[in-house]
Amino acid sequence: SQSSSKRWTLENFDIGRGLGKGKFGQVYLAREKSSRFVVAIKVLFKNQIKEAKVDHQLRREIEIQSHLRHPNILRMFGYFHDDARVYLILEYAPGGELYRLMKKQPNQRFDEPMAAKLIAQLTDALIYCHSKNVIHRDIKPENLLLGAGNSLKIADFGWSVHAPSSRRDTVCGTLDYLPPEMIAGQTHDEKVDIWSVGILSYEFLVGKPPFEAKDYDATYSNILQAPVRFPSHVSDGAKDLIIKILQRKPNRRLPLADILAHEWVVKFSKEASN
Ligand SMILES: Clc1cnc2c(Nc3ccc(N4CCOCC4)cc3)nc(-c3cccnc3)cn12
Q1: Per-residue pLDDT tens for 188-199?
Q2: DSSP secondary-structure letter at 171?
Q3: Ligand 1, atom 10: closest residue by C-alpha
Q4: Can you tell me the ipTM of this complex?
Q5: I need a labelling partner for 125 at 20 to 30 A (CA). Which of 75, 131, 159, 210 fits?
Q6: How far apart are alpha carbons 102 and 100 in whole angstroms?
Q7: DSSP 3-state assignment of 27?
Q8: pTM score, two decimals?
Q9: Is the C-beta atom of 22 inside 6 A of ligand 1?
Q10: Ligand 1: distance of its center to the CA of 21 in Å?
């Protein structure tokens, strides 16, 4: 369609308020002048991208995200650049960061209907990604946004690759969402995303990830060997699902299709949540 091949420039847009800060730049609300279509524009500074040696990651993020079409994956409509910056033209997510919504909940966690709905949408989006041989590798609350009706939107494909892969870049940021095979630097495949669904399912229901610890080494050790412990408020159905996903051997993890069909997900994703 015209949108993906058109030469965009900043002149095509009225820039609105800042929506938030990412690692390499700021995100702005914007409106395309001729269509009055509202978008989000993520502005990245070329010098910071070069310094961090992530320009190949950015190219891959653009290549992958602009070709994916799914209701739970944030659309990338195009991009353009000037001498100092790269601009990504993205779908505007009116609900903002899922992370913020979770922190605003009582006890900073979701109730079962809301958690199950989010897990079902995340799983559906990952089934789609894997059908295109794309693994995300960086599913965590900071990379999840909310569309209309608090629908989940996976954003930020900066770490996505085509499976299978062996990660070369050093992991920066939290280990909490990475599976044993990735932190041990082994080759990994799309089953790394299944692990992240398990970590997020736990976090949505408990309010923090299962292997969280005071420092990097303690988290590292927990991911490799710690048993998952649940507070008493977590239901048996949810515990059953999470234990079946958080299996250290990738091939033992519950496949995405079976997560969608799990009785706890089916039961609660149909219920109204508060
Ligand atoms: Cl990409 C992209 C598309 N849409 C968004 C978005 N949308 C959005 C909507 C609404 C509110 N507000 C709703 C009223 O209360 C105040 C916040 C914020 C962001 N935010 C970010 C972002 C990025 C980094 C930090 N923080 C937010 C990135 N986005």
Answers
A1: 899 999 999 999
A2: P
A3: 96
A4: 0.97
A5: 210
A6: 5
A7: strand
A8: 0.93
A9: yes
A10: 9
